[in-house]
């Protein structure tokens, strides 16, 4: 079984400020960290640290940021596709974080958009039944649909985290086996809980598992919040890893494992630097409940 994560990779610049800026407002802030990020990269990194074979399908630019990203990923065990940079700027995320633990993120998608659908589907043609395709909301609905359609034709498991959210994503539920959404995304997209297994994240209130007309709530693991960036990606990756490693469907134990891992991520500053280590994840996933 191999996991393909198709999405984005960015350079994350984190700024500390007293409050999130309003329209037309200028604020002083402090640039406190530069790290590798992007929802696709985040999920791929954590999945690979869980001991799973992962290919990250994400474009990077032919600038100094693109080379820096490539060097950072050498410390991880995942495969990057394509290895050759694209003739665009590397995608960048500007993360504003406040003293009361709130955050807001602005991210570019030039490199993600420049990676052509045909290039990705050519790689997915090498996948086998039982392999996994994970996508987020960084591609257009048309591109996202094309990749899920290709995955379905190869009998792959499809996983969707529609963030950043786009309304047209609601047309994709027939192609999705597992969805991970927050409350806003759930209200906007109305996932099909009859045919799609839906995990709804609730922040500090935990998560809900919706499957075949039944709903189960799993409380969050208490944590000291330092930086919430990457918490949702950690949650998704560990939930999926717990499910796959136990050869089962997402269940309460998978959500509990995911909550434990997310609690570690939010207790540290940064994105990749805040993720749990391979050893920590191995010990966590070995717990029976």
Question: Can you give a write-up of this model?
Answer:
The protein has 9 helices and 13 strands. The chain has one domain: Ribokinase (UDP-N-acetylmuramoyl-L-alanine:D-glutamate ligase, 3-Layer(aba) Sandwich). It is globular and about 50 Å long. 31% of the residues lie in helices and 24% in strands. It has a 9-stranded mixed β-sheet with strand order 5-4-1-8-9-10-11-12-13.
Shape: globular
CATH topology, which one?
UDP-N-acetylmuramoyl-L-alanine:D-glutamate ligase
**How many structurally independent domains?**
1
Can you identify the CATH superfamily? Ribokinase
Count of helical segments? 9
- The helix/strand order is EEEHEHEEEHHEHEEHEEEHHH
Going by helix content, strand content and strand pairing, the class is alpha/beta
| CATH architecture assignment name | 3-Layer(aba) Sandwich
Strands ordered across the widest β-sheet: 5-4-1-8-9-10-11-12-13
**Tally of DSSP β-strands:** 13
What's the end-to-end separation, in Å? 25 Å
Chain-averaged pLDDT: 94
Low-confidence stretches: none
CATH class wording: Alpha Beta
How much of the polypeptide forms β-strand, as a percent range?
15-25%
Largest sheet: 9 strands, mixed
Rg estimate, integer Å? 18 Å
In which range does the helix fraction lie? 25-40%
